[in-house]
Write a structure and sequence with these properties.
Layout (H helix, E strand, L loop, with lengths): L2 E9 L8 H13 L3 E17 L2 E13 L4 H9 L4 E8 L2 H36 L1
Antiparallel strand pairs: 1-3, 1-4, 2-3
Length: about 130
């Protein structure tokens, strides 16, 4: 049974020129650990809050992955010795938090759908008063 995780990897800033090689390596590391990438996002080069290995900047890569829990330790140890990665953060996704977020988004969408109808009725009322 696979669990969902979020993985953020800070790549060495010099790799920004050609990201495909380190990304291929990261994808292979995840695949070798029986993982599956469901989402991948490049957050770009950003300034770090503090220096890491004498670097002030890093390229942030975000992944949503599905992994068997027994391979997480192996993935972490592999990322620890990967030269391209300055730091990483791997966290398990809480299914209850995702459900709550989706529910909140649905409520917000319902409110947004009601609001234009209320505005239309107000403008009609104002138009009638002007006549």
């Amino acid at each position: 049974m696979k669990r969902d995780y979020e993985l953020v990897v800070l790549l060495h800033p010099d790799l920004e020129i050609d990201l495909e090689q380190p990304l291929t390596k990261l994808r292979k590391i995840i695949a070798d650990n029986k993982g599956e990438i469901t989402k991948e996002d490049n957050w770009g080069k950003r300034k770090l809050a503090y220096r890491i290995n004498k670097e002030d900047f890093a390229v942030y890569m975000y992944f949503e992955v599905s992994l068997p829990p027994e391979t997480v330790k192996k993935l972490q140890s592999t990322l620890n010795i990967t030269d391209e990665a300055l730091r990483y953060l791997l966290t398990a996704v809480d299914p209850k938090a995702i459900a709550a977020k989706l529910e909140a988004e649905e409520r917000e969408a319902a409110r947004a759908a009601e609001k234009p109808q209320e505005e239309n009725s107000e403008t009609k009322t104002e138009a009638k008063e002007e006549e």
